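All the exercises in this workshop are built on plain-text protein records. Instead of coordinates, the fold is spelled out as a row of discrete tokens. Once this layout is familiar, the rest of the handout is easier to follow. The record below serves as our worked example for the rest of this section.
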Amino acid sequence: MTEKPTYTLADIAIYFLKLGATGFGGPVALVGYMHRDLVENKKWISEDEYKEGLALAQLAPGPLAAQLGIYLGYVHYGILGATITGIAFIIPSFIMVVLLGMAYKLYGGLEWMQAVFYGVSASVIGIIAFSSYKLTVKSISKIDFQSIKTNWLLWLFYVLMAIVTAVTQSEEVLLFVGLAIIYMIVKAPPKWMKKVNTLPLILFSGIGFWSYEVTKLEQIAIFFTKAGAFVFGSGLAIVPFLHGGVVNEFGWLTENQFLDAVAVAMITPGPVVISVGFIGYLVAGFPGAVIAAGATFLPCYLMTIIPAPYFKKIAKNTSIKAFVDGITAAVIGALVGAVIVISSRSLIDIPTVLIALVSLLVLIYVKKIQEPYIIAIAALVGIGLKMFF
């Protein structure tokens, strides 16, 4: 714990409730808002405390913005503060995606709703492709000869996972962990590895509100807990895991429904990962939404409050940093592979290809425009194409 805070627990809870309800722009924008508001303007959090939280959010699994918010709640108010800020941050967007899920189930079969998501789904592919590029440059290296040469092993893992995901059309969790361990051994083997010769084995009707099966809820809990444990850096890193499970393995959603779920995450404020609430609702009503969201954010919460008291020491561990670098490269590679798989199934005609391409080009060349605006325009384009052509 640090010195006595200049704000109450209610103050920071209200702040994160507002941020969760109005914070658009994805994880990078959200962590920027936290620094501007809590460090620069309100001065509730020191620069050092913020940097420690950001470092932990990058090192440990979990969506970046949510994990940083949980840590900042922990700084002065411990586990209670972490719990309240985490819930306050997630609740607004969770309510929004559940309401959108209700509308989707009620109106999803109507022609105008299908027209909206015809454009939106194609646009989302372009947005994910651009996010994959940004994550690649940020987390692995710049795309030039010298940078690739210096980080060749990370690029090898990246390309390998892109190919494996594209070919198998599923997430390979053990391969992620295996590649991370290899990178750790090569770059910064733990001291105990150097000492031994062998390594150890490693209430509503018509909208499906209460429509669920107990077995399915159990599957949701297990699957989304696993997915939440492998989200590093950006919420979009969870896309290949979700796609492999909910579309390919369990068949809970169709390809278009999955893209619609990603689109819902893009048009709502707060953490991108909240799309799991929408998916959970489509699969098993409100109980499914609660369990999917809770299971996804539980690893993030635990991986923040457990190491928080010891983080200064953990942050200096080169082996842990190397493990995270390795698994991050693999996860982003899988995201690229997921984009390839989804594109091959969802870009079904020339208009959808053009919508995806234009969305990508707008993000590259029009720096100030945010994803919700692109999606809104794509929705109008979809309506125009379906209704009038």
Remarks:
- The beta strands are 62-63, 232-233.
- The longest strand covers residues 62-63.
